[in-house]
């Protein structure tokens, strides 16, 4: 019997089967790990939300390009984003969606008011929440022990602002205004505490809401109180509109903003009225840090625009999670959570380590002022 024709037919089949088996084995050796992001991807805060999301996206793309291994197995990271719309109710809904999608860590939030009701959902699921932007001090004190914040809190940032206004700026008659969000109100509360502790005087307290575009009544009251400094707690777009209106009213009051205001959006919206405005931001100027300029360049190359305030922090959040998995030799949240608690990581925003509450150890704040149409660092506190 001639076996050669039969063997000619069988050999290709065997070869293909072996090839497919090898390919399947290779694919099975790679683990897929999802990292979630919750941010406002639509609405008035969409620019900052996309900035935050893109910081995480850039870190994940780099990790995949480096073929990161956890416990000897290559990991492919996937980004799972949800739009919380800066709405606490929607934030809770999409937080559960991230849990259901099987994320092992979440980077969020932009809004403190969304973080506060959503964080307990991740605590119940045993998933770490790594915070790049939400600064209300209460976020890390909800009892879940799963929140890790890599940015200064309102107590630290706005506290520095209040003390500085009295002791360095020498403001005698200080006004405050906020947008009634958990962030804005929290920032102003901490600022007021610091002003009063330093012996300063608050002569006017005003508020608006985070969707308002007209501030004539509040600013008229502040002007009438003869305030020499106005501290505003709220978003960049509104801060710019307030600054424009102040100029239109002929006010000489020094504008000082809370975190998240010293960005290109403020400059664009405020126009010429931006000149001389001040804002306190979290951390040191990114461009002054060893990897800061490189980050800004690769961010612009990848996304076509300059990074805003929070993308560097979001980028570091993602890498903190990835490095915790590597350190713990596991992508299971219940295992690498302990590595987060003892994390020592040198990020592009500075040295990252957490205290017993999950807040950043040794946080810094930087005061910026608009000069010749650009935000320029004035001083950094906490170095």
From TrEMBL:
It comes from the Bacteria. Residues 1-27 form the signal peptide. Keywords: Receptor, Signal. CDD domains: PBP1_ABC_LIVBP-like. Residues 32-373 form the Leucine-binding protein domain. The keyword Protease does not apply. InterPro entries: Leu-bd, Peripla_BP_I. Belongs to the leucine-binding protein family. This is Extracellular ligand-binding receptor. It comes from Caballeronia pedi.
